[in-house]
Design goal:
Layout: E1 2-6, H1 11-21, E2 28-31, E3 34-37, E4 53-57, E5 61-64, H2 68-79, E6 89-95, E7 104-105, H3 107-116, H4 138-155, H5 157-162, E8 175-183, E9 186-192, H6 196-199, E10 214-215, H7 225-235, E11 244-248, H8 254-261, E12 265-270, H9 276-280, E13 284-288, E14 300-305, H10 311-323, E15 327-335, H11 341-351, E16 356-362, E17 370-377
Helix pairs in contact: 2-4, 10-11
Length: 378
């Protein structure tokens, strides 16, 4: 069986996506915010996008144990023989009770994450205090991890040396082991051997439970900046100094604020002006007008769009930019405002893959009634 964690308050939407993508697969409730289903994983073939999924636990098994040491033994038995001794792997041991609390990280933390990036192996936003679950026991999970590392050190030193110390985006050689505790003595164990985490990286997040703390910066024009920061972390690529961005529907300037802070040049398009300091910035070229009519004077590195509009219009805007080859990378939010959401999602899932080399469709932790499309042009 496969387990899929829902994004917050999105179980109905995820069920609809699963029913559309895997018509004959059963869909059961394994636990709050956790759906059970079954479908075939074909090597080399990417599974459909699930925008309302937070994390996927492939080939998960229901497991029980009474003690910390017993839990560590179960995980050890599962990885020995399944994972090669000379290839990297990651380990997520997390509690899950079906309830989440919002956690925000401060400006210094997200600026540091933006500079270094998760893929660099440096510490990032995910190293901040994790989102707490009220049952199951985060401390218990930490003790299980410590006990497992101790066992690996004694019995499988090669595996111990290959264990990633922190989340990184998967390479073709990476494996991922997930233990999700639904109670102190019960949970689910998933072992995804390479190259599954890399091939299915649009569904299989390198971040435990697919969660990221929401960035916080009081100096930003609005909290909307946190969506761009999270999309960059999930993509494993951040805006860099010297790159060019087109920010459509830019006012009051939160996404421009992020790009300018990185040293990028920004063409900001909106009928309303940005915050005064951004309007004065030498890195910002403000173009008053309609974001949907704007055509860039040259190829830009990033299309950024957080415009408030009907989802059909935003979807067509993104598709036009990619079809015309106007951008290298993109982060675009699509508002979920009416009954056409399913049709818009189907359009994006059908039309975007041939136009992109990397693609994510996700309801971010920082999103409310919207999803985010981000990735790189083909």
């Amino acid at each position: 069986m496969h387990l899929i964690l829902c994004s917050e308050d999105s179980e109905a939407e995820l069920r609809a996506e699963l029913a559309q993508s895997f018509a004959s697969a059963p869909i059961l409730a394994a636990h709050p915010l956790l759906l059970e289903t079954d479908f075939e994983i074909v090597p080399g073939r990417r599974l459909p996008h699930l925008a309302f999924a937070r994390q996927w636990l492939p080939n998960a098994q229901s497991v029980r144990a009474e003690s910390i040491r017993a839990w560590a033994g179960i995980v050890l038995d599962a990885v020995v023989g399944m994972l090669p001794d000379d290839r990297p792997w990651s380990l997520h041991i997390e509690p899950h009770c079906g309830a989440r609390m919002t956690h925000r990280i401060g400006a210094r933390a997200w600026h540091s994450a933006s500079r270094h990036g998760v893929a660099s192996g440096q510490r990032s936003a995910v190293d901040q205090p994790p989102i707490p679950d009220t049952e199951a026991g985060r401390h218990r999970c930490e003790f299980i991890r410590e006990a497992l590392i101790e066992l690996l050190q004694k019995k499988r030193r090669h595996l111990r040396r290959q264990l990633r110390p922190e989340p990184v985006h998967a390479t073709v050689d990476d494996s991922l082991v997930q233990l999700l505790l639904t109670a102190p003595d019960a949970g689910f164990l998933s072992v995804a051997a390479a190259p599954v985490p890399f091939e299915q990286r649009h569904l299989l997040s390198p971040f435990p439970k697919g969660e990221l703390p929401v960035a916080s910066d009081k100096a930003a024009p609005s909290r909307a900046f946190s969506k761009l920061v999270e999309a960059e972390l999930r993509l494993g690529r951040a805006i860099k100094a010297g790159e060019t961005c087109a920010d459509l529907g830019a006012s009051p300037g939160s996404w421009t604020y992020v790009a300018v802070g990185r040293g990028a040049q920004v063409i900001a398009v909106d009928r309303s002006p940005l915050r005064e300091d951004l309007m004065r910035s030498r890195r910002v070229e403000f173009r008053p007008g309609d974001a949907f009519r704007f055509q860039p004077p040259r190829l830009v590195d990033w299309l950024l769009c957080d415009v408030i509009a009907a989802p059909e219009r935003t979807a067509e805007l993104l598709l036009e930019w990619l079809r015309r080859g106007w951008c290298r990378h993109f982060v675009v939010t699509v508002k979920l405002k009416d009954a056409s959401v399913a049709e818009v999602l189907a359009l994006l899932k059908r039309e975007l893959p041939p136009l992109t080399g990397e693609l994510f469709l996700s309801r971010l932790c920082a999103n409310k009634k919207e999803i985010c499309a981000f990735g790189s042009a083909r």
